[in-house]
Every structure is written in structure tokens, then in C-alpha cells.
Design goal:
Number of strands: 11
Radius of gyration: 22 Å
Number of domains: 3
Largest sheet: 7 strands, mixed
């Protein structure tokens, strides 16, 4: 059996789409579809049920996935043992600059380093637009970036609600113009804030621009302006603005992207570990929320 077919199958199953798997594996969507067809023909079983946007595993597909992941993990371990040069050096990973994410990511990094002690990790934090350019320039091998879940669809690892934040007791100015504090550069949150206000017939003015998120949060805490962040970034001395005062914001998600070249073994392994940690965290959060609703 061609191991590449199993790797494609595992990616399609994980991401829920052929397009997402093709993007991750740096192949065309038709190639990914052909590889799955070859695997199904070889095994004599339908593995995936395809729809217009998503695909789901059949019973046979679910049985194969557990075995495929075990095989792929074993292959990675064998490569690391017999081709140690494939798991050495430095993996450069880009990470969206949301402070609260780093507690989760450090767990993933610790897990990876324990498995691959000869690999160094270089982290470059920045905004998604900047990380995307770094990927295209091949300055980083993979990046964890912010995306809109309703647009990206497949491969979104974790969704967070974007919220308006302000100092306690903040009131909308009498002139109705919303003062904004934003991170300098191509900040997607600033774009979302301005567009949401425009759709609601409200005006805004960028009062403070800062190169760091921490600086923006301090400006908000001082009551000079409001800003937009994922809900996990809300800190002490900052409150979420009531939705009736400012328009509701969309969700934002996280997704792993690789460069346009075949990722190194170490980069692929690191991406898998990050994906697993974030997925497990998301499942745990969902279980907690479900339990809370049942108790109420």
C-alpha cells in the first residue's frame, strides 16, 4: 500500500474536505480526490461520503482512520530513528499574536520537544496577513493564523467569539463616533470593527495605534478607546461591551497553513501536535459547556 494514500486520507478525514487536505499537502484537489479513489479501490470499501462542501467518514473510514494514524505515527518514528537528519535543525513557525493562545501552544511545543529533542523551534509572532507573506517568502515553514470559520470551513481548529472591549463604565461619546485602539499594520480585527460599525450606520475614529496588543489593552483599560479581541483576551480591568450598545461581531478561527513546498518531516510533525492539542482543548471546552447547560 502506498503510504502517501494513507497520509492524504488522514488529512481529508481531519480537515473534513478535499480542498483543505490538498492545501495542506501541497497538491491539487483533483490529485487528492484521485488518491482517495485509489485507496478505496485498493481496500474495496467506501471510506468517505462526499457532499458539496464537506465530507464525512463511513464506518469503514472510521475504522481505517485509527489504524492509519497509528501507521503514520510509526512511520514518523521510524524516520526519526533511521533518518535522524530528518528530525534535526530548526522549525520556524509563525503564530498569530494573541497572548492567551501561548498557554495552549507551549503545551504543544513541550509535547513536540519531548518527542523530537534534536529539533529547535523558532517562533515568530505577528498578524495573520504578515505571517501569510512570510509563508509565501518561505521564511517560515508553517503558521497558525486567524481565519473566518464561515469562509474557510474546513480545517478550522478552534473558534472564538470576537468581542468589543472597554474600560468599566465606558460610554459612547455624545457625537456617536466610536474611538478605536488598534494594533498597527494590517490588523484584521480593525477591519472587522470598522465594517461592523458601518453596517450598523455608526462612525468610528482610530484614536490610538500601537505595535503591540498589550499596548492596545492598556489604552482600553485607561478608557481612551474601545477595541476588538477574541473573548480569551479579556483581562482584569477590561469589560466586554454589551451587544446592544455596539454591533455583534463574528467568530474568528485558527487554522494551520504550510508553505508552498513539501513541509519537512519536523514541520509536519509539529503541525500535527499543534492540531491535536488545540482539537483536544476544543473538545474539552465543548464538554464543559454542554455539562453546564445540562445542569441548568
Amino acid at each position: 500500500m502506498d503510504i502517501a494514500l494513507l497520509r492524504t486520507f488522514a488529512s481529508v478525514a481531519s480537515l473534513g474536505s478535499f480542498s483543505g487536505a490538498a492545501q495542506r499537502l501541497n497538491m491539487t484537489q483533483s490529485t487528492a480526490s484521485q488518491q482517495i479513489a485509489r485507496l478505496e479501490e485498493h481496500l474495496g470499501k467506501q471510506l468517505l461520503v462526499r457532499t458539496t462542501r464537506k465530507c464525512r467518514l463511513t464506518h469503514a473510514g472510521e475504522e481505517l482512520l485509527a489504524r492509519a494514524n497509528a501507521v503514520l505515527m510509526l512511520i514518523d518514528e521510524m524516520e526519526s530513528t533511521f533518518r535522524p537528519e530528518l528530525s534535526v535543525g530548526t522549525v520556524v513557525v509563525g503564530v498569530v499574536d494573541d497572548t492567551y493562545l501561548f498557554s495552549s501552544l507551549t503545551r504543544a511545543f513541550a509535547k513536540f520537544v519531548a518527542r523530537r529533542p534534536n529539533v529547535n523551534i523558532e517562533i515568530r509572532a505577528g498578524m495573520s496577513a504578515d505571517l501569510s507573506r512570510e509563508l509565501k517568502a518561505r521564511n517560515i515553514e508553517l503558521a497558525l493564523m486567524r481565519v473566518e470559520p464561515t469562509i474557510e470551513g474546513s480545517g478550522v481548529l478552534q473558534a472564538s467569539q470576537l468581542v468589543w472591549i472597554s474600560a468599566p463604565g465606558w460610554e459612547l461619546p455624545e457625537n456617536g463616533v466610536v474611538p478605536l485602539a488598534v494594533v498597527s499594520g494590517t490588523c484584521s480585527y480593525h477591519k472587522i470593527a470598522v465594517e461592523s460599525l458601518k453596517r450598523s450606520g455608526m462612525q468610528s475614529r482610530r484614536v490610538v495605534t500601537c505595535s503591540s496588543l498589550e499596548g492596545v489593552l492598556e489604552v482600553v483599560r485607561a478608557g481612551l478607546a474601545v477595541s476588538v479581541v477574541p473573548q480569551g483576551e479579556v483581562r482584569s480591568g477590561i469589560q466586554i461591551v454589551e451587544s446592544k450598545r455596539l454591533p455583534r461581531l463574528p467568530e474568528t478561527g485558527l487554522k494551520i497553513f504550510f508553505g508552498d513546498e513539501e513541509p519537512s518531516v519536523a514541520a509536519r510533525q509539529l503541525g500535527s501536535v499543534i492540531e491535536q492539542v488545540l482539537q483536544d482543548q476544543g473538545k474539552a471546552k465543548t464538554a464543559i459547556l454542554r455539562g453546564a447547560r445540562q445542569r441548568n
